[in-house]
Amino acid sequence: MQPVESSAVEARLSRTLARLREAAPQAFDDAVFAARCEQLARASDFAAETLIRQPALLQALAADAHAPMDAPPGLDPDRRDDWPMLLRRYRTAESTRLIWRDVLGIDDVAATLAGSTRLAEACLQTALDALEHEFTRRHGVIRCRTDDGSLGAVQRLVVFGLGKLGGGELNFSSDIDLVYAYEDDGESDTSDHPGARPLDATTYFTRLGQQLAKLLDEITADGFCHRVDLRLRPYGNAGRIAWSFPAMEQYFQREGRDWERYAWQKARPVAGDLEAGERFLEALRPFVYRRYLDFGALDGLRSMKAAIAAEVARRELADDIKRGPGGIREIEFLVQALQMIHGGREPSLRSRALLPSLSALVDANHVSEDTGAMLVDAYRFLRRLENRVQMLRDAQTHALPEAPEDRLRIAQGLGYRDWGELLEALDGHRGRVAAEFDALLAPQRGAAVPDALAVYWHALPDAGDAAALAAAGFVEAGNADSLLRDLARSPGVRGLSDSARGRLDRVLPALLQAAAASSAPMLALRRLLALLHNILRRSAYLALLDEQPVALSRLVEVVSRSALLAERLAAYPLLLDELLDSRVAGPLPDRAQLLAACDAVGAAGDTEATLQALNEVRQALSFRIAMAVRDGRQPATESAQQLAWLADGVVRRVLELARDEIAPAHGEVQDARFAVLGYGSLGGEELGFGSDLDLVFLYDAPADAQSDGARPLDAPRWFARLAQKVVALLGAVTAAGRLYDVDVRLRPDGAKGLLVSSLTSYADYQRDRAWTWEHQALVRARCVTGDDSLALDFKGVRAGTLARVREPARVLDEVAAMRRRMRAELDRSDAALFDLKQGAGGLVDLEFLLQALVLIHAHATPALLEARATPALISAMQQQGLLDAATASSLHEAHAALLSAGLECTLDRRPRRAALSPAIEAARAAITGACVQHGLVFDPH
């Protein structure tokens, strides 16, 4: 067959070249150009016929094939009958140039797809501009209605491109998926167009959209421009042609289906009012991308895949490059599904185009590098083959050709000896893609749980034998049985949809089995059931546990070992995402990354939404830090430091919000400065889980300064209002909880003093009236956020205060006396448990020792003033010869041991008290010994 096929191909080619030479004989004087024309004619009958009909185009390609063809500069309103011809000839000419560049190897497949997209956009915009001008003359312009009933701003049609047009990767002869929309209801204003007939917005934009589709899609003597598909609009063919933004939002909230989330994932405004279109897509983002890891998206994908597979089987489309097994659609769905699962949490994944999206998934470790490279190669191969099949005769087809001649032409045009060699390469790509796609859709459930537990759960609440629980490992089987029967009877379980109930029926026995195998089965069960009650109505979380056995096993492990994390998971199920986040087991963010994560949170003009989002970020990051503590992946000192840095970022973002709240009414105080100081564990970068924040506020402003707003305030009142707002926002209750409790009692004069101190009054207070214990507190104080220059001035006040020459004996007496009073009031140690913070030889003893040494020696040793955190202070004192190496080492170890034990207590929701283990005894001995060595005796007996 091969010689016959080859002979037929060559005969056809010879006839085509003869016609081309006849159309433009001078162009064929150049042998190189003639050879290029031969390559083109071998690959595309459509391009050859276009050049025969438009010989000037052949001359243009010979001169310069780099510049795109010029779109019609404007369709003449007085020559409307010419519009279809001009658009179609432009489209065929530019399409032929794209074929020329593809066949000759000038463009890669990405450039061809981008060129096809630009061509469609140019035709759309040119046609719409002409039609809008015509509609304005006939019906005026559409204006929205204002609240008082008058006519408002002019509205234009927004044309959304979906599918490959939206993604900027339109294949050569593709149809274009369009949806028409407009901002709001209204009617046309004919005041500037006498005789024009007014229309309401829906009728106006519907007719405009219909005319646009007809102008592009209708077949004339010059063919068609672009095939238009409007079926992706709400309700498909049954829905109206043009929709207002509010109506579309309401539709997606109430009726939106999974396939529409995939469709609108790639949506992009391509003609008309592009800015309005982008605003709508931003509002639609929560419909497409959920705020959590959305494994429920896989169910929708499975349904779509099943429907496509049925269509492929029914219509015998196994050789369809797009819809067949391992085809383009599977690559698209695989990438889009992973974007939808993770994109709500990771904005970097929200690209419309496939290859950038795939690259982002690889960078985020959701796709391995090898798999990513394989999918890129397959995608490029399949899209190039698809283009060549369509370029042959400008047909909207995705099926491999059946005619032997066509097969040979395509194979040879792509550099293969024959069809068999091309088919072998194609089958290799499709097999690898199909395997990867099937792996994504296959439920990743763990080993099946014992039938007895599944049978037991399915029988509840009216039947079921608790012996199944005892056999699984629950010692208190009766209590467990009672809890599970209550769950089965609960309205939450009874009200589940069939699909959600199916997920619960798979998840619950697996959770029972995992809980039974934990170190504390009943404890784990109670905590797991508290969580389940909160997520029953949130199918995405059941989907996560159903689809991801790793998340399920991590969940049981976490809740059985940490009461705090169990409580947070139950209260804020969004944190379940962290169990699967690839970052949870990786390196934890540094200070700059934590600050950037907080800075990035925000919804312009919506303080409540921003606070909730900020709290979600704080919860997620602190959860990640807590997991590192629980897993022993980093020292407690680093975790406490990260928690303090996270608080820094939150306070910094809240200060911006507070300014935004106050400025509209009161303006700003010009040439003034403000700073937030962190004291205590925040200042010492030693924050715990659930710790409050010790804050002090400073300002500096010119005398008699006032704010410049509509209701001006003098500087003291303006900054007091700002500080009050910061405290209120930090403590505001949102759906994600409150950010932090705030303690402001360490300010000058304590509860009796002003909330905000001027820099001058603060310096005077520290110099003249502050007690020794207040200077101790200043050792750990630092500027958390605010004006850099004021932070520098505060640093100077702090240094001047701490470096004052003091009588050592008096310092030691006053520090010891204060510590003894604190011990008497706050130490919760008893015969069995040691108070890690306030007990004798505990963390506060160590803090007091270091603070006393700073107060005594800072005047002669300025290097001590740079450190705030306990480890840094110990190291600084060793470097300055105030602590010998052995003592410094033992204090480092003591601090780490006590801090670690304290964080463990917090994670298990216990008071920070611990049994006297050898490590804790050693820590107490080291701290007490160092205190005595330096003359600090906290317990004279």
Give keywords.
941 residues; 6 domains; Beta Polymerase, domain 2; five-stranded mixed sheet; alpha/beta
Please provide a written account of the structure.
Its cofactor is Mg(2+). This is Bifunctional glutamine synthetase adenylyltransferase/adenylyl-removing enzyme. InterPro entries: GlnE, GlnE_rpt_dom, NT_sf, PII_UdlTrfase/GS_AdlTrfase. This protein is α/β, with parallel strands linked by helices and 941 residues long. It folds into 6 domains: 1-51, no CATH class; 65-288, Beta Polymerase, domain 2, CATH 3.30.460.10; 297-441, Four Helix Bundle (Hemerythrin (Met), subunit A) (Up-down Bundle); 451-579, Four Helix Bundle (Hemerythrin (Met), subunit A) (Up-down Bundle); 598-800, Beta Polymerase, domain 2 (2-Layer Sandwich); 808-933, Four Helix Bundle (Hemerythrin (Met), subunit A), CATH 1.20.120.330. Strands 3, 4, 6, 7 and 8 form a 5-stranded mixed beta sheet that branches. A hairpin with a 5-residue loop joins strand 1 and strand 2. Helix 14 (354-363) packs antiparallel against helix 15 and helix 15 crosses helix 17. The chain is elongated, with a radius of gyration of 36 Å. The mean pLDDT is 90.
